[in-house]
Amino acid sequence: MDVVVSGTVLGAKPTDSPDQVGAIMGSDFAENSLDDYSMWRDYGLVEFFWARESPDHPWVGHHFTLQVHRLSYGGTSLVNESIRERYGRFDRHLRFDKLQRLLANRGVRLEDVPDANAPAFTLHWQPASQVSVMALREREWGRSPRRGKDLVGDVHTISSSVTAEQVAWSRARYGGQDS
């Protein structure tokens, strides 16, 4: 819940350098890159992403994503040690309605945002922190109520930073769809 309010993971901002994130998250990560211009580090539950103009330029933080859906497969074992030390045990499912209720109790509201992934998923946005929350809304036709081990109503991902301009674009592009 703190991520949705603060827009950070344990204080690590989406714009922080790899060294800054590493100082907070630790050295237990998998580093991935498709080319010399992009990179991400997978800390289990959390992934941080960077880009750069050329191999001679420094990495610039782009965003992070909490892959909440991974909890249903790996549980607490995939949660980074720094996060476990701060927050303790994690359930295998984070229900969107529970997250929304906890946030509302703190005076934090999420706005609904139309998205290309509708109707299977819903997208919600917290303007102050620029964080989005994607939740699994419905099962595919003919499939079991579970998508993998994810349940309808589970939070799928939490991401930052999602700007007001990106939300406006999504509303203009997908506003006529059922979100």
Features:
179 residues; alpha+beta; eight-stranded antiparallel sheet; two-stranded antiparallel sheet; 10 strands; globular
* Approximate shape: globular
Strand order of the largest sheet: 1-2-3-4-10-7-6-5
Strand content: 25-35%
Nearest-angstrom radius of gyration?
17 Å
Largest sheet: 8 strands, antiparallel
Helix content: 25-40%
Q: In total, how many beta strands?
A: 10
Mean pLDDT over the full residue set: 91
Unreliable sequence segments: none
User: Whole-Å distance between the termini?
Assistant: 23 Å
Structural class estimated from helices and strands: alpha+beta
Order of helices and strands: HHEEEEHHHEEEEEEH
Count of helices? 6
Question: Mind explaining what this structure looks like?
Answer:
The protein has 179 residues and is of the alpha+beta class. Helix content is 25%, strand content 27%. It contains six helices and ten strands; from the N terminus they run H-H-E-E-E-E-H-H-H-E-E-E-E-E-E-H. The protein has helices at 2-6, 18-25, 71-74, 81-87, 96-105, 164-174; strands at 30-35, 38-42, 46-51, 60-66, 111-113, 121-126, 131-136, 146-147, 150-151, 155-160. It has an eight-stranded antiparallel sheet with strand order 1-2-3-4-10-7-6-5. Strands 8-9 form a two-stranded antiparallel sheet. The longest helix is centred in the C-terminal third of the chain and has 11 residues, at 164-174. The protein is globular. The model has no long low-confidence stretch (mean pLDDT 91).
Question: Summed up, what is this model?
Answer:
By secondary structure, this protein is α+β, with helices and mostly antiparallel strands. The chain has helices at residues 2-6, 18-25, 71-74, 81-87, 96-105, 164-174, and strands at residues 30-35, 38-42, 46-51, 60-66, 111-113, 121-126, 131-136, 146-147, 150-151, 155-160.
